Amino acid sequence: MAESVVSSVLRSVGNLAVQETKFLCGVTLEVAFLKDELMRLQAYLKDADSKWRSGNARVAVLVTQIKTTAYEAQNVIEAADYMEKRNMLKQGFMGTISRYARLPNDLITFHKVGVEIQRVRRKLSEIFASAENLKIDMDNTVISEHEFSQEYGLMKDDVVMVGFEDEHEEIVDTLVDNEKMLTAVSIVAMGGAGKTTLAKKVYTSSRVKHHFEVVAWVTVSQTFKGIDLLKDIMKQITGNTYDSVNQMEEYDLGKKISDFLLQKRYLLVLDDVPRGGFFFAVEVTEVFTPYHSVACHDTWEQLNRRVKSFPDAANGSRVMLTTRKEDVANHLEMSTHVHALKHLDEEKSWELFRRKALPPYKRSALHVLDEFEELGRKLAKKCDGLPLALTVLGGYLSRNLNRQSWSDVLLGWPSTKNVFMMRNILARSYTDLPSNYLRSCLLYLPTFPEDRLIDVSVLIALWIAEGFIPHAPKCEPEETARKYLAELAERNLVQVTRRSEAHGWIEEIRVHDILHDWCIEEARQDGFLCQGGAPLIDIMTSYRFSYEGFSGPNLQEIPNLRALLGFQLQPISHAKLRFLRVLHIENSVLGNFSNAIGGCIHLRYLGLINCGDVSLPSSVGQLIYLQTIDMRGTIVRVRSYVWDIPSLRHVYLDGKLYPPRDVQQKVLQTLWLVLRFETSSKYYNRDMVRFLGEMTQLRAKSSRPRIHSTRIGRRLLYSFEGFTGPVRLALTTLMLEIHQQWPTEIMNIFAKMPCLVDICLHANSTVFDKFPESHHFPKSLRSFNLHAAAINQDPMPELEKIPSLVVLRLKGYSGRTMSCSARGFPRLRYLDLFRFTDTKEWNIEAGAMPKLSHMELTDFPEMSKLPKGLLHLPCLDDLILESMPLICFGDCRIKELRQKGCKYQEGDARP
Questions:
Q1: 196-229 per-position pLDDT tens digit
Q2: Do the beta carbons of residue 322 and residue 272 sit within 8 Å?
Q3: Rounded CA gap, 409 and 322, in Å?
């Protein structure tokens, strides 16, 4: 990993050196020398890393010195660069006065920079001498960047469950049987055996979804807290927002959950329950304290002595859990069906392995397929029927389709099984990654808590801030990062849990707990990452630190820390961290936040998500390297000084936004807003329109007015419509949430946004008497989502003319008939129609929707026959019907569709 550190630093220093480094005055030559020596050092690192991994203690010390020295070089050069860029931002007469006033101090600082660079160069000379003494070879190999598939965003995840078909049916039968008492189903197996995959397949099956009125799924980590599980369950079953649930005490949460479930037939799933922390710990009892992890063996009666959160109403409710420990499954004092999951047999193992290692699009190019299949069967057998081992090894070998590589794996197979076998497979897959940048991206994943669903937009912003994404010609860093993530997914090193329907790219991932643990150990050994609870010596020498559930008054000061991530932290104060580049805190209560970021001139990423009410200090405006501000779910007032940051690319705000009148930077790409405060001034709206109009690279804007802000959004959009200036936004994404009746003409603003790709408009109080004509929509539109109180005119004749539309969701059409003409919707793949309460007839002409694969129809109470045109849709794979009382399962059209291979199911009713 030292090689990736130096590569990242070189790229950073190189970017500064290229930009006519007048700011360094007399030390420009020193910077050039330093860069040359870092490049020379990089040549030694491949052999040094190899010797370090073999256990050479002296080389381990050298590798640590290399990383420390490289980071020191970056810090000192950026400090000088910061001063110059800060001064350049000061314009006009007062700016000149300010620069001259700072000149004496700046000259002193530049002198210190020169002295510090000389010190770093002396350390590098010592490192070179040590490398020669340790006989570390110089590698002059030119490393080329890995070429990624151009179809990276369109890869379809293989979600087919292999080998557990009988278990699936048995567990579903048990859950939906006639037993009225509350009972449990426990799936027990070792890690990597497929417990979660099977449970998820059961959870999402049509029989289960139709049988239970309420379902909830939570994952129980090793350090879970009962109150956090209760909050998660509460949000899932009631749909309450984070704000309302977060303020509730444990007793109140349990009581409200109990009251809600008392009249419902519910299914509660608890995934990956550890020993000593089984699911009944989420019951509300006196033994809980809000800020301490739960590890108890108390019985059901003891845990329910105050509030029984999950009542037994004798209505057939169920609990399903997955665990590695059979004693956890047997500890439940209720009727429990324990299902011990068996490993895959030899034939099923080969089937799963073949899907991953030899997918159809690669099999056709192999001239000696029989030889690969022979080797593959032997390798699949070695995996001992463990799905995780089969998929990860298959992903690795799919990238190494040569007989020698496959034979080498087989010959080098460890004699030990299970845990050691998995470690060997993961280590091989890690080493095979095509670049050090990609290895860093993988090792970064355990900065998030175990079993966490990871938002890809957050992850990508963190990767970029950390310097893991190299520059690529004609390619934005975000696009390169998505390619990196797709590479990890294709190698089965991450589990894709959600993709964009319109674009195909990955939006959410999960990391298997076995891989999570392996990455933590690998990262800890390298000093790459340390987590809470680690030995003090590891903490103090680590460059990245991740906390979960910390409840002390202060986070300790770590001298060289570059990234701090925290989750579920209680009232804390952060020590000042001079070299911090990443600060990401979620679901936490912050103390003196201003002190934490004061003076953090290197900061690239500032994320405070679901952290209550926060005030950003004015010093934020001086963080000139800051790329991302993410305040989703955190109430914050943002003053205009934020817009003075020249490198700012992505902004997510929940609170009050003060648009600037004079914009210093124009590289903003994402603006996500939740407006919570009354700002109805015409000057506010004028400044906002001008501000957005000058953001020529803005790609995404989400505005969700709430509380008193309906007039804000309304006047703002009227300002767009009436503004005569040169406003043609480069927006690609627009999301609006509207709570009062709006005139339908307001959709004309789309004409000023010719680059729009995604539109989401929630106008549940608006009646559209006349639907906008197709020319009001940009031709680039791929996804259109409209929720309305009523749409009185058939929208299909206009929407079907949008040439690029892939996803269409409509709610609220009130007409009796609608029609889709031949050649309409040429690219539509996903169609979701909801609450068409008066629609009786739908005419679909032959040739319409030729690529449609997924259709959901909900709440069509007047429709008695499915349209005959459904039979003419050549690609229809899935049809979901809900709340259509006049259409039964035995409908002749449904039978014909099933005969053609279309999957039919009854879905969940929606509010």
A1: 888 888 988 888 888 898 898 888 776 666 777 7
A2: yes
A3: 32
